[in-house]
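Bug #77: duplicate submission created two jobs. Keeping one. Sequence:
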Amino acid sequence: MFGNNRMRWRILQLSFLVVIVLGASASISALPCPRTSSQQDAWIGVKVDTLIRSARALYENEKAQTAYDRVVDDIASTMTRCGLAEGSEFAVRYLEFVGYVKALSLARLDDHELGFNVSDKIYFAETQKYVAIPDFLLTPRFLKTVTRFETLPQAKALLREMNATRSADDQLIFFSYESRHLGTPDNNNSFRRLLIVVPGNPAQHIPEKWVQFGLTDPGLRVRTRNVSVVSVVPGSDNTTNTYFKDYFRTYRRDGSITIKGRWELGYGDDNCVECHKSGVLPIFPVDGSVRPAELSFVEAVNDRFLSYGPPRFDRYLDVSKFGPGIGSVRTPEPIVASAKQAHSNLPSTLNTNAGASTACVSCHHPNGLGSLNWPMDAKVIGSFVKGGKMPFGVELSRGERLKLYNQLVQDYFSIDASRPGILKAWLLGESR
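Kept job's structure:
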């Protein structure tokens, strides 16, 4: 009898707790909406700071993902509930903020892991003609040679055989290297790559494809599966549309190898543009990881990268919704025909961090190589800046580069009311 009474009391306590929690949730969702202009100004002042603070926390530590997602969801739901998102006077006054939150919210949808305007299913269906792996790289003979580091000589021999039958302007450019910063999607500790650039035909809108095979390190039994394709197609006004897809190889017991899209296999996907702000990424291998005979090929593919126009992502992403990036100035940048032209305007050395910051935006703006704005990958930014590869043409010591990197991050994410950072000033409409 005593045990039954104790059980009833415990159930009553739990029921009471549930009522409190549900009541609290209801009260949060029923918080009064900011109606007057002064209320809205106060609300957005708080939310902008909260959003930027959580974004910076996630930039610096991937464990802050849940907290950041909660902030984005809260702001987006409040805007919807209170009628602040579409067609309101608030949306006109805070155009940048409303568009930004809407763009960030796309990646929170279960079927929009890529962060694009359409679902992942629609994106991959519509872009398959651009991101399909060329058939000559899918033969069983070639796939068996491009699995491990030890079999690279055979893979390259086959690629040279292919080039023997291709015209001079259709030659494959290929080399192996070790990445400085990012592992493959299936293995964070896998940094060896074989990159094959398959020339396109701009006149016929045939995409140029950067096909990259992840390679299993010597001696490891667990094989790297990833194959990535980044393709570029000429767009309008000297721009270039970029498309992405990751594939996974399946190694079967009978020795055969099959390839299928990572997303189609049920492994989900990542927001590609977080890393690929410039569309294609230039290749800066770990020193000594490229064979001397192939160093000229690294230069050749980076020259191709520099020949592309400003990056766009077709109808799938409006890059203007994400605002200016790190190192930005608040004056419009002129359109340049290619990154080569922007690079040619840089001085060979810059001795101050302020000058180096300016060098960033000399290339990384909407009509250049794309703005380095949030969401962005800290490993990529940090590796390029602290590793000495960016800003291009800038001579700085290791200590100066660390100071520059910290300054760039602070200037972008600062929420100081008297001297707001680049992101805050833009979200509040102060950069117009």
